[in-house]
UniProtKB/TrEMBL annotation:
<keyword id="KW-0408">Iron</keyword>
<keyword id="KW-0004">4Fe-4S</keyword>
<comment type="pathway">
    <text>Porphyrin-containing compound metabolism; protoporphyrin-IX biosynthesis; protoporphyrinogen-IX from coproporphyrinogen-III (AdoMet route): step 1/1.</text>
</comment>
<dbReference type="GO" id="GO:0005737">
    <property type="term" value="C:cytoplasm"/>
</dbReference>
<feature type="binding site">
    <location>
        <position position="243"/>
    </location>
    <ligand>
        <name>S-adenosyl-L-methionine 2</name>
    </ligand>
</feature>
<feature type="binding site">
    <location>
        <position position="209"/>
    </location>
    <ligand>
        <name>S-adenosyl-L-methionine 2</name>
    </ligand>
</feature>
<feature type="binding site">
    <location>
        <position position="184"/>
    </location>
    <ligand>
        <name>S-adenosyl-L-methionine 2</name>
    </ligand>
</feature>
<feature type="binding site">
    <location>
        <position position="145"/>
    </location>
    <ligand>
        <name>S-adenosyl-L-methionine 1</name>
    </ligand>
</feature>
<dbReference type="GO" id="GO:0051539">
    <property type="term" value="F:4 iron, 4 sulfur cluster binding"/>
</dbReference>
<feature type="binding site">
    <location>
        <position position="55"/>
    </location>
    <ligand>
        <name>S-adenosyl-L-methionine 1</name>
    </ligand>
</feature>
<keyword id="KW-0949">S-adenosyl-L-methionine</keyword>
<dbReference type="Pfam" id="PF04055">
    <property type="entry name" value="Radical_SAM"/>
</dbReference>
<feature type="binding site">
    <location>
        <position position="112"/>
    </location>
    <ligand>
        <name>S-adenosyl-L-methionine 1</name>
    </ligand>
</feature>
<keyword id="KW-0627">Porphyrin biosynthesis</keyword>
<feature type="binding site">
    <location>
        <position position="68"/>
    </location>
    <ligand>
        <name>[4Fe-4S] cluster</name>
    </ligand>
</feature>
<dbReference type="InterPro" id="IPR006638">
    <property type="entry name" value="Elp3/MiaA/NifB-like_rSAM"/>
</dbReference>
<feature type="binding site">
    <location>
        <begin position="67"/>
        <end position="69"/>
    </location>
    <ligand>
        <name>S-adenosyl-L-methionine 2</name>
    </ligand>
</feature>
Amino acid sequence: MKNSLIQKYNVAGPRYTSYPTVPYWDEADFSYEMWTDTLKKSFIESNDKEGISLYIHLPFCESLCTFCGCNKRITKNHTVENPYIKAVLKEWSIYCKIIGEKPLIKEIHLGGGTPTFFSPKNLEDLINGIFKSATKANNYEFSFEGHPNNTSYEHLQKLYDLGFRRVSYGVQDYSAKVQKAIHREQPFHNVAKVTFWAREIGYTSIGHDIIFGLPFQDIDDVIDTIEKTKSLQPDRLAFYSYAHVPWIKGNGQRGFKDEDIPKDDQKRILYETGKKLLFENGYNEIGMDHFALDTDSLYEAFQNGNLHRNFMGYSSSKTQLMIGLGVSSISDSWYSFVQNVKNLEDYYQILERDKLPVYRGHLLTNEDLIIRKHILNLMCQFETSWSDSANYFKEIPEVLLQLKEMENDGLLEFGDKYLKVTAAGKPYVRNICMAFDLRLKRKAPETELFSMTI
Ligand SMILES: C[S@@+](CC[C@H](N)C(=O)[O-])C[C@H]1O[C@@H](n2cnc3c(N)ncnc32)[C@H](O)[C@@H]1O
Ligand code: SF4
C-alpha cells in the first residue's frame, strides 16, 4: 500500500514558497511602476500595524557544495565583501526614497550563499546601514544562516549584539562518504562548537538543516545523522528532501551521477526513518519539512495558527510586505512579486543608475489572491475552508473531485466546506496544493521546472 502511494504521488511539483509559483508569473503585467505602486500601497496599509520584513541575500561561498540549489558565487577573495554591502545599502536607500517614510522593521533574515562569509564588521556595517533610515518594531525577529565551517564566535556575538536571536546551520549529513560526494567536508565537532557557542551567547532558537536523499546516503547515515543531531538538541530542524534540479544553470549539481541518488521507495524509507526518530526525540512536525521542539516559537506559531510561509520558508510572524535585497532576491507586497537580477555584474550596473535591480514579477489577480490563501492554509495549518464566500472560487467542485482519490487513499478528509490533511497525508501536502493550483492545471510545464514532491 505504502509503496503504491509513493509511486502514485511522487511527481514533479512546486514547493509553494509563493502562489503563483515563479515559473507561472505573468510577466506581461510586470513593470517597474507596477512594482513601485503596489509596494507603496502595501507599505501604507501595513507599516504602522505590523512593520515590514527584509530578506538580504549574501551570495558568496568559499567552496562549492555539489548538491546546492541556491544562488551563489564561489570565491575565496574577500575583497568582494565591501562593494557588495555598499550595493545592498544603495538598493535599500532607493527603497526608502520610494516609500518616503521611515520603515518599521519586524523581521530580517540574512540568507545565502553564506552570510558568515562576510566579516562580523561588514555584517555590522550592513545592519547599522539599514537602521540609519529604519526603526525596529516591537518583538522584532532577526535571523541568519551560518555555515558551521566558518561561523566564528565573533560572528555570533556581533550579530547577537545587533539583535539576532535565531541562527540556522547547514548540516546536511554527517557521513564521510556523503560529505565527500557533495563536496562539503564538515566534521561533527564544527557543528557542535557553533551550536554551543550560540547557546552560550543567548540565541533562543538554533536550527539545523539536514537533508534526505543525498547521493550515496543510506538508512544508517540518516540514523547516525539524527543521533548526532539529537545530542546537540537544536530547537528546530529542517529535514529537506534533496531537490535534484541539475537543469538550473551553474548550480554545480553534476558532481555525482544520477544513479548515485536514492530514489522512490529508497528515498521514502530515508524520510520515514528520519521522521520517526525525530518524533521519538520530541520534535513536532510543522508544515512541510520542518520540525521543532515544544519550546520553539515556530511550534508555538503552528499551534496558535500564526505560522506563515514565504520565500524564506516558514516563519512565526507574518508581515504583508517583504522586501528582498541583494542579487536574485524576491520581494512580496502581497499584491505582487518581483525578483532581482541573478547576475552580480548586472546587479551592480543597475544600481549605479539609481534603479531597483528588479527584472521580472507578477501582479496577483483576485483569483490568485484566493488560491494563495488556500495554499498558505494547507502548507501552514494542514487544512483549508471555503465557508466564507470570499474564499470560494468557481472551480472548487473540480478541485474536490480531483482530490477524491486522495480522500480514498486516506490522505485527507472532507467536511462541510472544508478539508483537512490527515497525518498520513502530510508528506503529500504539495500534491494536495497542486489540486488548487489553477495556473498549473491550465498550463502543464513544457520543460522540467520542479523537483519531485517526495
Ligand atoms: C543557503 S543554504 C545554507 C547556508 C550555508 N551556505 C550553508 O551551506 O551552511 C540553506 C540550506 O538550503 C538547503 N539546500 C540547498 N540546496 C538544496 C537542495 N538541492 N535540496 C535540498 N535542500 C537544499 C541546505 O540544507 C542548506 O543548508
Ligand atoms: S550549501 Fe551553502 S556553502 Fe554550499 S554552495 Fe550552497 S550556499 Fe554555498
